[in-house]
């Protein structure tokens, strides 16, 4: 009976339902066996899609009803495996097993139950976390078509620190991507650009016909457009929140359109305020600090709480946040470069082991950092497009001195520069002739 007991426990774990089919309640066994084979088939299909049709795989697994279904199925499988395991213990008849083996058989059954039913429960929980994270990051806006064959996305890097009145964008870039080839060009807009025009259809164009000036904030620079719209003109954007955006972000999109001459379909906002939680979730981040950076303090370096010393080191969330935020001992351009390098360093920390063991903390932190109005249904398309983009060099246009004077920019010249840079090569437009 001892060998039979071990055999039933093992086969119940490897092929749930088979123990009942062979030695117990065949109706229950057929239910368990059918559920097991169905699960195996779904896993095989998922792996095949991931390998051969990754776009379809991403579309399916990021579709909210599918995540609800996965969550429900995992809970159902956990309950079924629990019932099958308890029934297998009944079939084992521990009292007839060798006395020295009874405790080991019972312990093995509990461990295997924790692996199977517990694994399904964790899977259900992760499906719920994924669903919540995707819903909080991606907007509910409409799917936009490319304009002139391109998607133009406004990238904003901001910091809603304790010394600031709301979030203020420090990094402002437009990523223009060819909708077919993935060829990308980034356009850097200086945050201190003055006289910013708005697109013709912007509700702010009538309020600032000569560009962004005579505003209510302290300095009428490009990055102040966000604050101005949030605090003074929120009523002009009644549908912004419903579309996964905000009045400030919509105004920044319209300002970027006025500066570049491009139509901006979507935005992606990275809030540096949430980086501390993400870095701590990842167990720290390794960066190379080039300059001694103050933590806190003012422009005269009074009341500094501490320093981040030069050198390669692993920073925790608190120090990583100040590495990106510190601005009194270096220039704005240095801070923007540090923010970019921190983002790159964090991306290298996303190893499979880190993601699996700290999934919940990473997901929760990520939802605080990244916001976008890109619809969740377009996620797979943009993942495919990003794959194409990574396979080729990314061009860059910097609207900074000496190319552009931020205090007195020539926007007609900027439009011409951007249009010329994004125009397809002549050999693509001249035909076969």
Automatic annotation (TrEMBL):
Residues 168-349 form the Cell envelope-related transcriptional attenuator domain. Signal peptide: none annotated. The chain crosses the membrane at residues 33-53, 65-84, 104-127. Keywords: Membrane, Transmembrane, Transmembrane helix. InterPro entries: LytR/CpsA/Psr_CW_biosynth, LytR_CpsA_psr. Pfam families: LytR_cpsA_psr. Gene3D superfamilies: LCP protein. Coiled coil: none annotated. Belongs to the LytR/CpsA/Psr (LCP) family. This is LytR family transcriptional regulator. It comes from Labedella phragmitis. The lineage of its organism: Bacteria, Bacillati, Actinomycetota, Actinomycetes, Micrococcales.
């Amino acid at each position: 009976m001892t060998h039979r007991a071990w055999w039933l426990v093992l086969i119940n774990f490897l092929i749930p339902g088979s123990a009942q089919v062979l030695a117990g309640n065949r109706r229950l066994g057929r239910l368990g066996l059918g559920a097991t084979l169905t699960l195996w088939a779904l896993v095989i299909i998922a792996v095949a899609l991931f390998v051969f049709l990754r776009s379809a795989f991403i579309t399916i697994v990021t579709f909210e009803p599918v995540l609800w279904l996965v969550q429900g199925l995992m809970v159902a499988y956990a309950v079924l495996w629990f019932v099958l395991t308890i029934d297998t213990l009944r079939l084992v008849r521990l009292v007839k097993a060798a006395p020295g083996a009874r405790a080991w058989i019972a312990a093995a059954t509990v461990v295997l139950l924790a692996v199977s039913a517990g694994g399904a429960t964790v899977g259900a929980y992760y499906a719920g976390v994924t669903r919540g994270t995707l819903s909080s990051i991606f907007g509910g806006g409409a799917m936009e078509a490319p304009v002139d064959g391109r998607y133009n996305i406004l990238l904003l890097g901001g910091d809603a620190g304790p010394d600031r009145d709301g979030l203020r964008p420090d990094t402002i870039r437009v990523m223009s991507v060819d909708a077919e080839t993935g060829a990308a060009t980034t356009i850097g807009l200086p945050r201190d650009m003055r006289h910013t025009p708005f697109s013709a259809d912007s509700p702010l164009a009538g309020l600032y016909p000569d560009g962004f000036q005579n505003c209510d904030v302290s300095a009428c620079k490009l990055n102040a457009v966000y604050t101005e719209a949030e605090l003074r003109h929120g009523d002009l954007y009644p549908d912004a929140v419903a579309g996964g955006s905000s009045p400030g972000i919509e105004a920044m999109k319209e300002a970027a359109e006025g500066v570049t001459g491009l139509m901006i379909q979507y935005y992606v906002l990275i809030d540096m305020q949430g980086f501390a939680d993400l870095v701590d979730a990842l167990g720290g981040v390794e960066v190379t600090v080039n300059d001694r950076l103050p933590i806190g303090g003012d422009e005269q370096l009074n009341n500094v709480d501490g320093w981040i010393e030069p050198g390669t080191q692993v920073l925790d969330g608190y120090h990583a946040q100040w590495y990106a935020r510190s601005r009194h001992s270096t220039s704005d351009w240095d801070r923007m470069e540090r923010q970019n390098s921190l983002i790159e360093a964090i991306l290298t920390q996303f190893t499979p082991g880190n993601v699996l063991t700290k999934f919940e903390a990473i997901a929760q932190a990520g939802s605080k950092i990244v916001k976008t109005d890109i619809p969740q249904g377009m996620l797979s398309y943009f993942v495919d497009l990003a794959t194409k983009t990574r396979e080729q060099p990314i061009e860059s246009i910097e609207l900074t001195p000496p190319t552009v004077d931020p205090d007195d920019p020539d926007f007609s010249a900027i439009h011409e520069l951007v249009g010329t840079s994004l125009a397809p090569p002549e050999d693509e437009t001249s035909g076969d002739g």
